[in-house]
What does this fold into?
Amino acid sequence: MTADLRHVDSWIFDLDDTLYPRESEVMALVSDRMTEFMVQFTGLPRDEAWTLQKKYFHEHGTTLAGLMAHHGLPPEEFLTFVHDISLDGLSADAELRQGLERLPGRRLVFTNGSGDHAERVLAKLGVADLFEDIFHIASADYLPKPAVSTFDKMAKAFGLNPKSAVFFEDSERNLEPAAAMGMTTVMVGQHALDSTADFVHHRTSRLPPFLIGARLQES
It folds into this structure.
């Protein structure tokens, strides 16, 4: 069904596994780098380091947040290491660009990743010029989504009216605070169509066709 988004003038996008498909395996490379960092930082065997990595992710929202909370890790050391990956799995996406170009108003990125990583990904996808701003993990004082206070900071930084904003995310739990603020929510990716959460307003397995087909306000 075509989504009615005629009320929207601010378009907020998560970055990884949202603006590009999970099959690109960018996040798989990032995850491998996280595990390698955990091995080097903790001295644990790789399987135990991986288990701790996932424990911190589930308890704190990101592995980084867990490392900061339990070990006092300087965040930039971690971010620089884990985002030092090849982006050869990404390429300019003409269909994505077509979908983004037709959106009236502002296009913005809200990511738990670093600003440098976001800029690299947007450039690789060939859409960097279409985005006005990026709210990244340093902008959030390293407190990741889905923290409500981070959503509040993002909305203030962007000067959002939540009632006229939509948030696109591949993680269901990161959509709940957006919906509570009054934003329209869209879950994107391979698990989107299985979501039954009432705070997920729209679902799509692929972002570009959804954007191309949505009903928009007249420019």
